[in-house]
Design brief:
This protein is of the alpha+beta class and 308 residues long. The protein is built from seven helices and 15 strands. The protein is globular and about 65 Å long.
Length: 308
C-alpha cells in the first residue's frame, strides 16, 4: 500500500470525490468508490465518502494498493459454506464464521469468492479483481445469508439496490443486558475509531448510520434482538449496541464481558445475518432467503434459555 497526499486543484472544485479523484489519478470511478468505502480516502483529515464534494485547496490523502502486490483469488473449498439458491443471475449463500467475503491485504484465510470459484460457479466480472460479483459484505466473524452477483446485469441492479436501501437485511444478535426501550431506532453516525484503526465508533460528523431493533426474547443477563439495517456501515450493529452499553455477547473488541463469552463458549460476537430479501435482478419479483443459526450461536442461545 502506498499513501499519497494531493492538493485539490481549482478545476475539481465542487466535484464528487469519486469523479474528481478518478480524473486526478487516472483510475476508474468504481476503484475510487471502493477505496472510499474501505476508508482509504481522507479529505482535510476526515474520512471522505465517494459522493462528498471536493473544494479547491483542500488536501486529499489516499492510500493506494501496490500494483505489484495485486491480490489473487485462490479457488479453495470453504467448509460449512452452504448454497441456499443458485440461478443465472445470483448465488445466495450462508457464510460460515472465519471466512472473509473477498481477499484483502493480510488475510490468509478462506474467502466466499474463493469458495464459489472452487465450486465451479462463475460470478460477475464487475468490481475490483478480487471483489468481482461482491455487492455487499459480512465481517469474517459474522455468519449468515448473503448474495453474490453472477451476471453483470445483476451486479449493476443489486449494487444500486443496496445503495438505495431497497434491500431488506434482517439480523439476529444477542446483546448484553436489556435494552430500554425494547423496541427502537439507533441513529448515530459511524466512522473509524479516533484512536484504534482496527475498529469503528460513533463519531460526530461520521457517516449517517441507522439501526432498527426489537427485543424478541429476554434472558437473565442478555437479550435476543431482531435487527433491521437501514444503512450498511462496517461493524454497524456491533458499534451501535456497544455505544448503548449493550455490546453483542462475545464481542470483546467492542466491550463485551469475557466471562460471559467463556461461559457461553463464544470466541466471536453473537451476530447472525438471518434474512435477506430483495427484488430479483432478472424480473423484479421479491425474493426472500433465510440462514439457520450455526452451531456455536445455537449452543450459546440454548445455554441462555436453559437458565431462564
Amino acid at each position: 500500500m502506498s499513501a499519497r497526499m494531493l492538493p485539490v486543484p481549482d478545476g475539481l472544485d465542487g466535484m464528487r470525490v469519486d469523479a474528481g479523484l478518478a480524473k486526478l489519478l487516472g483510475l476508474s470511478r468504481t476503484v475510487v468508490a471502493e477505496l472510499a468505502e474501505s476508508g482509504e480516502i481522507y479529505l482535510d483529515g476526515k474520512p471522505a465518502g465517494k459522493s462528498d464534494r471536493l473544494s479547491a485547496g483542500g488536501l486529499l490523502e489516499v492510500t493506494l494498493p501496490d500494483p505489484a502486490s495485486a491480490i489473487e483469488v485462490v479457488a479453495e473449498p470453504v467448509e460449512g459454506m452452504k448454497i441456499l439458491h443458485d440461478d443465472d443471475d445470483i448465488v445466495v449463500i450462508s457464510k460460515p464464521v472465519g471466512v472473509a467475503v473477498h481477499p484483502s491485504p493480510g488475510w490468509t484465510g478462506p474467502t466466499v469468492v474463493g469458495g464459489l470459484a472452487a465450486a465451479g460457479l462463475r460470478i460477475a466480472t464487475s468490481g475490483a479483481a478480487e471483489r468481482q460479483g461482491v455487492v455487499h459484505r459480512l465481517d469474517a466473524g459474522t455468519t449468515g445469508v448473503m448474495v453474490v452477483a453472477k451476471s453483470e446485469h445483476a451486479y449493476t441492479v443489486l449494487k444500486r439496490a443496496f445503495k438505495e436501501r431497497t434491500v431488506d437485511k434482517g439480523y439476529h444478535a444477542i446483546v448484553q443486558g436489556h435494552p430500554d426501550p425494547t423496541r427502537g431506532t439507533i441513529d448515530a453516525p459511524i466512522d473509524r475509531h479516533p484512536r484504534h484503526d482496527y475498529k469503528f465508533a460513533v463519531v460526530q460528523g461520521g457517516r449517517p448510520s441507522v439501526t432498527h431493533y426489537e427485543v424478541v426474547e429476554a434472558f437473565r443477563a442478555a437479550s435476543l434482538a431482531q435487527i433491521k439495517l437501514e444503512t450498511g456501515r462496517t461493524h454497524q450493529i456491533r458499534v451501535h449496541f456497544s455505544a448503548l452499553k449493550h455490546p453483542c455477547v462475545g464481542d470483546l473488541t467492542y466491550g463485551a464481558d469475557p466471562v460471559l463469552a467463556r461461559k457461553l463458549g463464544l470466541s466471536r460476537q453473537w451476530l447472525h445475518a438471518k434474512t435477506l430479501a430483495f427484488a430479483h435482478p432478472a424480473d423484479g419479483r421479491w425474493v426472500e432467503f433465510e440462514s439457520e443459526y450455526p452451531d456455536d450461536l445455537a449452543n450459546a442461545l440454548r445455554i441462555l434459555q436453559a437458565e431462564n
